[in-house]
Amino acid sequence: MGELFDARAFALGMVALINPCGFALLPAYLGFFLGLEEAGDERRIVALNRAQLVGLSMSAGFLAVFGTLGFVFAGLGTTIQRNPWISTVIGAALVQLGIAMLFGFQPIVKIPKLEKGTGSRSIASMFLFGVSYAVASLSCTIALFLSAVGTSSSGASYASRFGGLLSYGLGMGLLATALTLAVAFGKRGLVTRFRQLLPRINFISAVILVVVGIYVALYGIWSTQVLNDPTTITPWINAIVTRAESSQTALASWIDARTTLLGWMFLILNLGLAGAGLVIRRPSAAPAR
């Protein structure tokens, strides 16, 4: 996948899709875009083809938002590399925010919400819904978003940092497309089960934020010591950073390998559905006389 794919940020993006700010509305909008109320006896393959279009358009909206944010946040990485103490400050702030969330605080950021559609089932309307959902999700999943930024900005290249947020949006898009296909296939109970996770999202986000915050803060201290005088590195901090870097590399490789396999399977499935849809829509040959 190269530097543009971050397995950890990809997984965080999938978790971020299930957020209380937008996920409760997702089934209703999918039902509208998929035309379920008008489907009648429509062939299942045609409904699945429409689901592919909806999922692809929404995913493009996600990638547009997080790709743009990636350009902005990736540029901050150079400043952090030159001033590693900034990582310590950011890490401490993330830990404080995570602890506050464990005690019930919800970091709802007031972000202007775009219109979630134009009232039509056009590709532009589906894309706009994806953009709106991504923007709205930042209000409820700011912790996960900051975690994705934190795990992809320390000591990494610009492409790697940009790829972190791009992977975050890609994770949201892949799960959204899978859910869209599930709804089109009649598996609405799956969406209901995901809704049951909503009360736990804040707690999960808080735990992730505390863990990531501690590591980012320690990494900032370690980087500062390395730049100033490598002989002054605190042994236990060096051990934590070294072990964390090794574990992250192993975990990323494990996730990356399986994500790649699942990605190819998902691609083959969608190509098969698209091909079947073309065959079904092809006019039958006129009967011979």
Characterise this structure.
There is one protein chain. By secondary structure, the chain is mostly helical. It has one domain (2-276). It has helices at residues 7-17, 26-34, 44-82, 85-102, 123-140, 142-153, 158-184, 188-195, 198-228, 235-281. Helix 3 crosses helix 5. The relative contact order is 0.19. The model has no long low-confidence stretch (mean pLDDT 76).
| Major sheet details | none
- Report the helical percentage: over 70%
User: Structural class, from helix and strand content?
Assistant: mainly alpha
What fraction strand? under 5%
How many domains? The number is 1
Number of strands: 0
Shape: elongated
Report the radius of gyration as a whole number of Å. Answer: 22 Å
The overall average pLDDT, rounded, is 76
Low-confidence stretches: none
Helices and strands in order:
Blueprint: H1 7-17, H2 26-34, H3 44-82, H4 85-102, H5 123-140, H6 142-153, H7 158-184, H8 188-195, H9 198-228, H10 235-281
Helix pairs in contact: 1-6, 1-7, 3-5, 3-7, 3-10, 4-9, 6-7, 6-9, 9-10
